[in-house]
Amino acid sequence: MTIKRLDHVSVVVHDLAAAIAFFTALGMTLEGEMPIEGPWVDRVNGLERVQVDIVMMRTPDGHGRLELTKFRNPKLVEIEPAIAPPNALGLRSIMFTVGSVDDSVARLRAHGAELIGEVVQYEDKYRLCYMRGPAGIIVALAEELF
What we know:
By secondary structure, the chain is an alpha+beta fold. It is built from three helices and nine strands; from the N terminus they run E-H-E-H-E-E-E-H-E-E-E-E. Strand 8 (about 125-130) and strand 9 (about 140-145) form a beta hairpin. The chain is globular and about 50 Å long.
């Protein structure tokens, strides 16, 4: 059996409203939001008394989705270091193709994002950068030059 598609990526955040604003500024649209709790969510998470608020965001082309999750219970578990460097094990980044890296960087900075390094050009193919987004995740931006 093969997979059908990548359905979505999930990010756990402290501030759901700020995360929605950040990804809206990037160009995603709010698809839906709802509170979730109950025995099934406890079992799937392997935790007790789970209460979360879930928001689904969609890319403009309709193919990519991002789940933003705010845990009301149990409390969030902090990781060390809280702001992991780019060479940390695990999920590295979420990359988005954008129309303009410069425009995207400016819009995301208005929502608290910061460049990790610099905006660079890879050959005559892409302009690229990494930004620190909600919950310390790395959001990669790629502008096609071809």
